[in-house]
Amino acid sequence: xxxxxxxxxxxxxxxxxxxxxxxxxxxxxxxxxxxxxxxxxxxxxxxxxxxxxxxxxxxxxxxxxxxxxxxxxxxxxxxxxxxxxxxxxxxxxxxxxxxxxxxxxxxxxxxxxxxxxxxxxxxxxxxxxxxxxxxxxxxxxxxxxxxxxxxxxxxxxxxxxxxxxxxxxxxxxxxxxxxxxxxxxxxxxxxxxxxxxxxxx
Length: 201
Description:
The chain is of the alpha+beta class and 201 residues long. 29% of the residues lie in helices and 15% in strands.
């Protein structure tokens, strides 16, 4: 009898891969979105509303004001002031004088204004000038190291004359050291000066 042939074992077919379900698809899409996320914006000091509006939380501070420069001091602490007519440049000159000379200059200015109401003032050659009318002056003063020198344009005609001589025949000087102002005599000279013709300077 012929031998029976053994049945050939059939090869088992590999199971087909299951199609990805909805959960798998969701995971993939979520992962894809996560990979596509935009980089987070850098935090700033502004709030959300201010960022949208373009505003900033910190207010800009106003620019610092430039400090006004003080006038330079020449020899004898005499301020260097630009020429000018009126009371303003005279007051600027006086305000720039340091120490006791400033107090003396303020007192001289007050006494002159009291003795001659409506007196005209100006600054010329770094010195205050006083007159009954502009351009004709009867008095001026200037700072030196140890005193303030008052110049009377017609001082030679005063009674008594101021003690300081001058190269000019009509001019006389009155040097005032610290604490040395004779207010009564000075006022008398100012009143006499205002009655005489002024001098062009």
